[in-house]
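hey all, quick one before standup. I had two proteins in the batch that finished overnight and I want to keep them in one place so we stop losing track of which output belongs to which input. First protein below, input sequence then structure tokens straight from the run.
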Amino acid sequence: MNKRNNHWAILIVLLQTFIVTILNHYVYVERNFFALEELLPYVDVIVVVLTILIILSIRKHEEDTKKYTEISLLKEHLKNVEELLTLLKSQKHEHTRHIQTLQSMLYLNEVSAAKHYLEELTEEYWYLQEIIQVGHPALTVLLNTKQKVAESKGIDFAFSVKCDLSTIHVNSWELSSILGNLVDNALEAVLQLKGMKRVAVEVKKENGFFNFYVINSGAMLSKKDVAKIFEAGYTTKQSEARGYGLHLVKKLVSKYDGQVRVILKEKTTFIVSIPVRGEGNVQKALVSSSTCN
């Protein structure tokens, strides 16, 4: 963001306050209203000009903030793409290494050793699954990357997109940020579990809304947490750096006239509802509380 623009706005406000203060002091001390009448038109012009400058500074600040937010979200999206590409390269390298090992064994006529190697590889090797396409490039990258991250941490992660997302009117990087923050929150929630760790994502088009369900099997949130979880800086983790992911989700969803809800039943479910353009309303979203098993 442009710090210089912020400084100018503060300076203009201070100057305007200074002029008004001097004017009040003049009226109180001099009590020369005839001279004041001659002075007032010039003061009015100065105040109006300063007010216009303040408005322009505020608008510029809003534009800078919007650009900064978009750049940050785009960087996060590119980071997800980079992580997936790095993972793919790593898996490709592993595939190549195993193929070369088997080729060498067969070249040396070590057939039994090659069979044994294949048996161990089948049982223990974490093979690369095909990239699952979900019909939205940004979410395809995000969900496949999060799946690999979850698997590396021993978390059972599943996702299913049951609608066409090509018509959703949310910027790709903002949609990635919304879903990415919810998935990260869900992964953190189950990470400390000793039993089965499960996170699921489901996307549906229901009653004029694109509904995104993010479900985790972690510890239940308290009513106090649910009431404050979307506030800036509030976190259930012992860290001052946390507490802004869900706030950002709420802010971005509200930008598109959507809604975020939390359902505490057998599992914790976050539901994001984004209205389809020209369809639905928020009241319908409240009725639509799809099964989250």
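OK second protein, same deal, sequence then tokens:
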Amino acid sequence: MRSRPRLLLVGCGLMGKRHIGGLAEVRRSRLRDARLVGVVDKYAARAGEAAREVERLLGERPRIFNSVDEAVEGIEFEAADICTEPASHHTVAEPLLEGGIDCLIEKPLSMTVRGCRSIIEASMRGGTLLAVAENYRRDPVNRLAKWVIKNGELGSWMAAAQIVAGGGDAVLISPWRHKLTGGILIDLCCHYTDIYNYFFGTPETVSASSALLRKVRYVREMSGEALMKTPVEVEAEDYLDATYHYREGRVASLLVNLAATGEGLWRRLIYLENGSIEVPMERTGEPLKLSRPLDQDYLATMPHTAFLGQRMGEPYKVSPEDAEEIYDRETRVLFPELLNGYKMDFWEADRKLIALELIDFFRCIEDGDTPETGGWEGMLSVGMVAAALESSYTGRMVGLEDVLELRVEGYQARINRAMDLTSDI
């Protein structure tokens, strides 16, 4: 077992600051720990703000650097937490991985499959640990959903649907996500494809269509009492309708409309032979619901209700004994008295889910274990979204293996060129 790792945080923007909060949760839990010895950001003010936050939450002020090269020359560290824009992940991570530094990289691992493979190969050359920060699957509700599916009490799964509509004409989180190398669909949907991979395993083929619905979005800010509305030109698609085809005829659909104005929609439903599972949005703490129709429910359907389902879902009852089996120790410590659902606000839940990512990373460093979401899982979640975009680009069904093996990357070729990744296309 290795000693407590010295950690370098690379990228001090929104995601980097969230990771600092997650590290504070790790410290409070006493499950694992690390020393955050340095922070890196190209903007000195942002790095300084992060260093002050580290000192406030963790009691030790880290060194500040404007580049990874400066940090390598200036301090000793064994691990890096990379929270930069995804298009830069390969340029930041590969020298560290090859140089013997274990890395946790925020999702998506890269904006293309070629970029993911490049990072994985660097890890293999350096003999270093590569983990991907994927927080959605760590939400207790998704742990519970996986357990219910595996338990088989509703029979085998048949189909699944993830539907997201909203966003309007606003810039979503940050302008770079709407650029070619920011790929808002890849950035968001890799969460949902990772959930599908976690629940169901790897699909075989993908058929999809995508579109760019809003070519201009707006940043809205208040300046005094005046509303400032700044336009941002958009390059990346904001609409995706994809179907993932699994063995034995099973399918999982993903419908995402990030240009929808007005009433929004968010649903995650899993349909099994004898009922359905409704999985709520992560970080809400809402309970998982099951619907198990009876014959009498079918008798009560009318022509106008036949396609509205047979029975509403109800919160699934979890006993304390089942909770011990469903949730690992780390989850139970961070979410005390957990059965089905929890009561905390978004930001507290967010910190705890990031803490679970970090705990898994530190455990692997110290004990030599394999991370739950490593390079393969990170590439697969990106590859499943990329395959959908490739299907839309080519106008035909695409094999996922062909995308993962770089036999199909026509859509991704322009992104690869923009990221200075060699492409055969």
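Flagging for whoever picks this up: The mean pLDDT is 96. The two ends are 46 Å apart (CA to CA).
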